[in-house]
Design goal:
By secondary structure, the protein is of the alpha+beta class. It contains 5 helices and 5 strands; from the N terminus they run ααβαβββαβα.
Length: 194
């Protein structure tokens, strides 16, 4: 048991270190796959030894706190993260949980797409107008990135109803990932290098 405690402690410290490098310094030292491996190992150990699973574990956190330099935004409801599946058994386990929650006879359909690693954001529209855009941050408090988001052509600054039967709500919160496709990223790098 002492070896398990030591491994959990070492994993927590390593993951916290890499969280700091990734979320705060924007300078990761390991790949996402290597990070996920460490994280999954810690999750596995905490599941096998619930007496060693503490509330301060990195497995209980989402993202990181605001970095500073931006105004803070408190989310109306927590902005959580989705879990990952790394093998067939984890997918089957997820399906079992879904069917148990919905009931055995409920129809279930899945859509699977490649993982996009971007910046999780929340867009808040009031009466159809984009008023605030913020990062996920720690899930409860993020950073105000409204000015930055308004420069993205695909993000509407004002919503318009296509049908009168589907009016724009007074308050609409939209959550998703902001990312740059590889072609646009390469173009940006070429322009910066010139």
């Amino acid at each position: 048991m002492e070896n398990i405690k030591k491994e959990i402690k070492a994993l927590k410290e390593t993951i916290e270190y890499h969280n700091q490098r990734y979320y705060v310094l924007d300078d990761p030292e390991i790949s996402d796959a290597d990070y996920d491996q460490l994280f999954q190992r810690l999750l596995h150990l905490e599941k096998q030894h619930p007496e060693l699973d503490f509330p301060d574990s990195p497995t209980r956190k989402v993202g990181a706190g605001p970095k500073g330099g931006f105004l803070q935004v408190t989310h109306r409801s927590p902005m959580l993260s989705l879990g990952n599946c790394f093998d067939d058994q984890q997918i089957r386990d997820f399906d079992k949980r879904v069917r148990k929650f919905l009931g055995d006879n409920a129809p279930v359909t899945y859509t699977v797409e490649p993982k996009i690693d971007g910046l999780a954001v929340e867009l808040v529209y009031e009466k159809g107008v984009l008023t605030v855009a913020s990062t996920r941050g720690d899930g409860n408090v993020g950073e105000d990135v409204t000015r930055n988001i308004k420069t993205i052509l695909n993000v509407p600054l004002k919503l318009t109803a296509r049908k009168k039967s589907l009016p724009i709500p007074d308050l609409l919160e939209v959550r998703g990932e902001v990312y740059m496709d590889l072609g646009a990223f390469e173009t940006l790098n070429r322009k910066r290098a010139a």
